[in-house]
Amino acid sequence: MSDGIAHAVLYAAIFLGVVYTSRILEKRWPIAEVSRGEFRDDWLAVIVSVGLENLLAPLAAISAGAIATYAGVGWIKLPTEGYWWYVSLVIVVVVLDLYKYIFHRLQHAVPFLWAMHSFHHSANGITFITGGRHFWLERVLSDAFLPIMAILFRIPPDMAITVGFIFFIPDACAHLNVRIPLGRFVTWVNNPQWHRIHHSVHIEHRDKNFAAFFPLLDILFGTAWIPKPDEYPATGLVPAERVDIINSVIWPIRHLRHVRQRESRNELG
Ligand SMILES: [Zn+2]
Ligand SMILES: [Zn+2]
Questions:
Q1: Residue 210 Cα, ligand 1 centroid: separation in angstroms?
Q2: Domain range for residue 89?
């Protein structure tokens, strides 16, 4: 077997193992009931978006390559000898988390970005797979036009893989439909209860808990809502929207049309 196929089989096995484990946990200690229909919609949305992103990835890579060549890559060369490897890793994680936090706040504040990001928030039931539910063009555009980390840092491949793994735990696992009583540790690392507040239907939770890794950023920038031990709100857009395959591809058009219809109804009313 060639190396490429062996890697593909290994990654597929890891992916299936993680998905299967998440399902066992979600059935054993669920936060909320998620209907079969919601769960299926979520999976279809993820398959469509990941498929389109991969299809367009070569185009995004050409654009990112051109921008990085123009701006120059690896402005900051982090030391990687001995224990410096770990120091550099911490620096990259902290800077990347800050970047993710700022970008996430812009996604909620800038109408053009919210028209796309609202797709992630359209999930009515949140499960592990919701972590992959993003509007396809959103990731293509950010990959194509914002190769910020490549411009900023020159890091070895093993560190890049470690960073990806480190962010997978809080970022993807924050969507697990699993009740984990963290007590006062709820503000330490992003987790299902912290992130559920961000997806909440309640007005008091709006624009709260943006953090991808460290909730400390929300606390520092005044966007933290520290959940009470039993605070697990209902999630989704208000009013709730059902998204099929076609709508997942044309989401911003559909979303903006809905917003406009609501506004004109309010004006008439
Ligand atoms: Zn958001
Ligand atoms: Zn989310």
A1: 6
A2: 36-268
